Amino acid sequence: MWKKYCPRCQRFSFSACRDTWICPYCQEDISSQPEYNINESVHQGGETGTGEIMEGKGNGRRTA
Q: For residue 61, what pLDDT is reported?
């Protein structure tokens, strides 16, 4: 499984396919963006490194 970071909507998308890659959130063609193994730590913005993986916007908490 692979993941790519979309610079347009600033979210990660995931796929088992490595061909043409369209962001499922904003429809941007991100085929030319680097791909990362799903287990690889990648920070928001697409930089690799150690630490927390930041995916998408917000903190993941829901509010009532």
A: 43
